Amino acid sequence: MWLGFTDFMEELLEDERAIMNEMEADRVTTVRKLLMMSAGKRIPLSKIHHCRSLFGIPDDFRDRVAKFPDWFRVVVDGDGRRVLELVNWDQNLAVSAIEREFMVDEDKAKRAFKFGVKHGKDLDLDEDEERKLNLLNTLPLVSPYSDGSRFDLWSLEAEKYRVGVLHEFLSLTLEKKASIHHIVEFKEEFSLTKHTYQMLLKQPRTFYLAGTEMNWAVFLKDAYDENGDLIKKDPQVLFTEKLFKYAQMQESELGSVIDRK
């Protein structure tokens, strides 16, 4: 018995390989940014591989990292896991999507998030203290590329940091969305807590949560139009949509597509 792909399927696979190669530099940048956000600037390779489809990372990325010794190195930790470490920090990459938005439209970026701070005249604050307290409430986020370990776990700064990390994490994904399973995969690296669901629920202007608390997905609202379609689509997303379209065709319809090719 022999099994193989049709010529049509072989062409599709070649198209996908071409996209992976064409987008390699972008995917490498994505991994560099993930490492820059992570605690210790290191992530187990198995975690990146498990979530590779989320970011468009090719199946053979674990082999490709050897091509970039100036940016990555692979070490083996005490548990025998292969861990990807960042070699060089690039300050030009340490700018989040919300920070870029802030530079373009400061008011819009400020409105994107709301962090309540209860205070009033009874605190007897002087003008400078009042300004500092209000600043915490108006600045949208703490940079996800800062050192999150320095914040007290339950402080406002720590919450802003975690929201910022998840916003940037979603910004790096192909479809600007992720499931709880993807997010929990990086819980240790991004200093997340078990209250992530409740934390994101408090930011309805920016995040849309679908599903239940135990099985939910989170979307970046601004990445989608009023019809629920992605506004800007990565080449890999366009290719996947094409595959879905072919998969839904009847054999006769698909035959006509193949004939045209």
UniProtKB/TrEMBL annotation:
Record-linked InterPro entries: PORR_domain (IPR021099), PORR_fam (IPR045040)
Domain PORR: 3-251
Domain of life: Eukaryota
GO molecular function, a single term: RNA binding
Name recorded for this polypeptide: PORR domain-containing protein
Organism: Ficus carica (Common fig)
